[in-house]
Batch of 2 targets.
Target 1
Amino acid sequence: MTIPASILDIFAAIMLVVATVSAARLVVARPWLRGRGAVGADIDISHLLMAIAMAGTLAAGLRTLPNDAWDVIFAVLTAWFGYHVARDARRAGVRALSGARCAPHLVHTAAMLYMFVAVTAPAASGGSGMSGMGGSGTQTLSLPILGFLFALILIGYSIWDLDQLSGPGASGHYSLAATRIVPASASGAAIPALAGAESPAAAFSGLTSAANTASPASTASPASTVSAASTVSAASTVATVTPPAEADRVASCDPDPVPGGAGYPLLAPWVATSCRIAMGITMALMLIIMI
Amino acid sequence: MAVSGGRAARRGGLGAGEVATRAAPDARRMLQLALAGVWLLDGVLQYQSFMFTKAFGQMLAATAPGNPGVIASPINWDARLIEHHAVALNAIFATIQLLLGLGIACRPTVRVALGASIAWALAVWWFGEGLGGVLNGTASPVNGAPGAVIIYALLAVLLWPADRDATPAPFTAARAVGAPAARALWLVLWLSQAYFALLPANRAPQALHGMIAGLASGEPGWLGAIDRSAASLTSHQGLTASVVLALALAAIAVGVYLPAPAARAAVVLAIVVAAVIWVVGQAFGGILAGRATDPGSGPLLLLLALAYWPARTGAVPRSLGQSQGHAADGLPT
């Protein structure tokens, strides 16, 4: 009993699109030119790697690396996002675990790690490993309850992301304007402060305001210790951000800005979130299929 | 480097001012999202390899016997069709369910998706579940009677994004259809389950034992052990177990007509019963054994119970976000 290859190929194709988009975001953002300021690049890197790994799992012909290599890659990514979540939890408490910062990425990478570590080769295929689910046997996962829980959480995040993306304040705010950056020289020493939001609602409320660029200057309320250091002033379509604490400056788990005055729709936050939704659903599908 | 408005707000604007521009989803929207999640899980389950085989069609055909001809004939026709076109039709079914989940989660399409989910659920209830065994005497609350999928439709109706009355509703489920209708629907659902629990097929000495023991096969060790223990407990106790279950279900049914504290107790009892049925009686719908077509009735009954949780202040606020031209659930008013 196997799933028709054509079905799996469709999901593999979706993953290839996600990988392509994530790679394009990295190329456009050029994070390697900005060193520690290149916050958020880890998201696109993790999306790229996860999408490639999932495409290879769904379609044997797209397999790239051996399972052991993926084990190491996703262990590193899980540790990376785990570190960020732990750091956020120390500062902001449990909100960091339920918020839209690093926690979803931690779940995604941990689910990938689990999937590669817990998979058991089908007897019918002679232990060919995780080289696509359309082979001669259906692969299964050890500790299936863990796979089920991961699937539930992934579905939950996907549903939440979609709800937030489609909210009344969010419509039309995932456009060029949302990613427009002007050079640092225009505002002195201000730098990108991708502190992100402390909760899903807050995360997207920032996006919500993207089109409301005519709002008067405002000072952010210190909703948490993470955001307390950032003072924002908005004037017309351009705002400046004063440097937050160093730790915040290197905070991750948020879409990356791009240097230069032009807007980049590809770097709009909704693009990364859409990739996350697509991967979350596909990953849940794979986990359920392999239970 | 400076950032345009949206960015700036995103970075530093995490305070109350920005957050206030976007009301958090209200209770009804949260329940809608949970329903969307269940539909999405349903769609994902439908992509399991088993569903692409003839066995899926045969499983559907097994729901026809015992039903009146007018009900059974379309089921048999549908099952044969699926047997012959298992891959194409199952792929369509799975995609529809996936889209229903995504549609409910996406605010602009929530009405369309909820409406479509009602139609789809009714069709599946007939063609896929044989009306939940209601007409052939095999329905049991333990196996999900009157059919898990009909609860999807019921939830879609109760969580419809509209408010029937200008006055605040006493619980979330009353917002769309009004409190009397919502209570009546609750009463019918739980009383029907109490009735099914007392059917001859369910109160036979070994009926419940056999039903639970049959779940253990293929489940992980710990879940199989739970099922075997429960089966052992109910061995030759079919009548007693059925009566106890029926009394609990009847108490739940009338609970929503009682004052708020008693209504809360009834809802809590409903949640407990739903959880026990889901774990012990349905083994999580068979998901861990790889044979589930849906997660079972447990999560849906749980959602339903939450929709009837009495508001603390005696009324559910209707329009927290209407100052922005949207209801609290984010839908246009």
Target 2
Amino acid sequence: MAVTERPTTQQNVVVKEMSWDPITRIVGSLGIHAEIDFTNKEVLKCYSSSMIFRGFDIHEGHRPS
Amino acid sequence: MATVEFVPGQRATEQVVAHALWMTTGLSCDGDSVGMTSATNPSLEDIVRGIIPGMPKLIIHHPVIAYENGDDFMQAWFDADEGKLAPFVLLVEGSIPNENLSGEGHFAALGQDPVTGQPITTNEWIDRLSPKAAAVVAVGTCATYGGIPAMKNNPTGAMGLPDYLGWNWKSAAGIPIVCIPGCPAQPDNITETILYLALMLAGLAPLIELDDCLRPKWLFNRSVHESCNRAAFYEHGDFATEYGSDHRCLVKLGCKGPVVKCNVPIRGWVNGIGGCPNVGGICMACTMPGFPDKYMPFMDEAANAKLSSNTAKYTYGPVLRFFRKQSIDLVYDKEPEWRKPGNVNLSGYTQRW
């Protein structure tokens, strides 16, 4: 888990960027990246990322049969 | 630790710590990882706990079974890149995309670059780690030959690991890429090959024998048909006409077994139970380099198979079936005539004293 501390100028509000990438013990490649305001107990931003693209659904004109 | 040595030099080789880095971030479904957790001979637990005499201690770094998350998990990859984890074996699951086609994005990646925060692509990890690995293993049909992500009209330009690194590629220890195909690869085939490589790197086994397609020879030297327990019905020209009908040969339903190299009919799946054609499923040829394009449509009988199965069905098959049934009914299903109660022994025995 990567934690980047970035205190902002407003009244000692602590905002941390945290990322879990890859998330293990699941099948599939998932990463979660979040920006959390620990002072106000609020999640400011949260992204998920899928690390692989297989392109199964766009095998145009040649579907497995 | 063993007090008795079962193999010469066992104590020395058991002191060696080897690492296995398993990448699931090729284009795949992680089916091989899930399959491997059900291996029984040897099981994953046997390998991790080192119950096999002489086997080096093997530490497995695997996204599906690791307790570590995120950067803690990725540390092993960065350590391997810096040469801190020697010796290690790199196992790749999933086909390798052609990142030249991905433009500004990426098709497959694992972890982030600590400096730039950008994802590190699977291809970059393979480029970085394969020269340092003691052995490189491709697990599953996607990683070995391309499989479904690499079929016709695919958008990613996917290919197998030997296509990417080169079919004549050899590791620093002089070992070619080891391919364990299957969709998923048979669990015991995976763990057995890992075990073999571990013993080989410890100097307890000879160099692994591979065929032209880089498969372990002792696992993939026979076709599905040669090891199928329905194969004799083909010889008799006696074919199943629908799924679940009976125990006859499945070729007319589209089974590709006669032209597929795979040991699943002998080995079964979990703990020896099952095996696709043994339990009534057609062989779809999932272990083969030509899979899936050259075997489609899966549910139809191939033209070659039609010719040979009809030859069996309309010429010699019924003749064999008739005479074999006659022999069984008239001769072999009957006991020899001397087995009866009474005061006389009719077996032909004569007393010699």
